[in-house]
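Field log, afternoon session.

UNIT: design team B
ACTIVITY: writing a sequence onto a fixed backbone
BACKBONE:
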């Protein structure tokens, strides 16, 4: 739709729109991570290295995380082709960030939880990064009503979609989700005495469920039982996340969510 900033804003430099917003998202996420680390007294070499490791893992898996799309390896693109032309997967980036963080912490022998530092940073970063997706990628499936994003013939031809048909603004839904998640994390959850890392688990769990649902209007390829590849991945991940949250809740780790602090009026 708007492959470069010049297509979006006349007079702007011809920078790749998606790359620009991903870069902006990384900068904002880094600033928020640093701010939260400073607030918690966690400004140290290890937390910086962990952030870099997470960013590197996210960058690699964002490109290569969707490489093995077929059971027959011969049907998949080469790694070089995947890196240059492959789909950019947010779920792949999140998995890659997790792998990068764990690997970095293992090398450093750093055992302190960093999830609470990452949760608001990732939420803000995804809210911004999804703007780039909104401006450059397929919006979603037809809404069946007058509501939705309508593409002109040029835009429709570029995305191989029908022109003049209202489409679900699926990335707008995601931007709204991550914006609300960031506000809840920043102004509420991070100030509660939850167990280390639990704000991150709650955020990822909520996003996993949301993403599974929004996939029905994303227009991604259905591969099995009416589900897309992201949904198949989430169908395995969501029960594990829910199980972890239930176990932590039984241990009382989420009690601060429901208990009003002393001295606060009803």
């Amino acid at each position: 739709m708007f492959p470069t900033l010049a297509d979006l804003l006349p007079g702007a430099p011809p920078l790749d729109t998606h790359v620009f917003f991903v870069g902006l998202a990384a900068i904002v996420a880094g600033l928020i991570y640093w701010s939260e680390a400073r607030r918690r007294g966690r400004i140290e070499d290890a937390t910086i290295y962990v952030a870099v490791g997470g960013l590197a893992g996210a960058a690699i898996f964002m490109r290569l995380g969707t490489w093995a799309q077929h059971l027959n390896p011969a049907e998949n693109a080469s790694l070089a082709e995947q890196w240059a032309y492959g789909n950019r997967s947010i779920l792949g980036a999140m998995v890659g960030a997790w792998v990068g963080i764990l690997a970095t912490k293992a090398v450093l022998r750093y055992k302190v939880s960093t999830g609470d530092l990452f949760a608001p940073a990732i939420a803000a970063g995804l809210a911004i990064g999804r703007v780039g997706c909104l401006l450059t990628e397929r919006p979603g499936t037809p809404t069946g009503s007058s509501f939705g994003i309508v593409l002109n013939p040029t835009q429709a031809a570029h995305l191989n979609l029908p022109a003049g048909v209202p489409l679900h603004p699926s990335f707008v839904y995601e931007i709204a989700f991550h914006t609300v998640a960031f506000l809840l994390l920043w102004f509420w959850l991070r100030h509660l005495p939850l167990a280390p890392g639990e704000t991150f688990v709650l955020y990822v769990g909520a996003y996993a469920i949301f993403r599974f649902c929004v996939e029905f209007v994303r227009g991604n390829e259905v591969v099995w039982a009416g589900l897309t590849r992201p949904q198949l991945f989430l169908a395995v991940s969501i029960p594990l996340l829910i199980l972890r949250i239930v176990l932590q809740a039984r241990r009382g780790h989420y009690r601060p969510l429901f208990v009003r602090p002393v001295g606060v009026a009803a």
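LOG NOTE: The chain has a mean pLDDT of 86.
NEXT ACTIVITY: expression trials, pending approval
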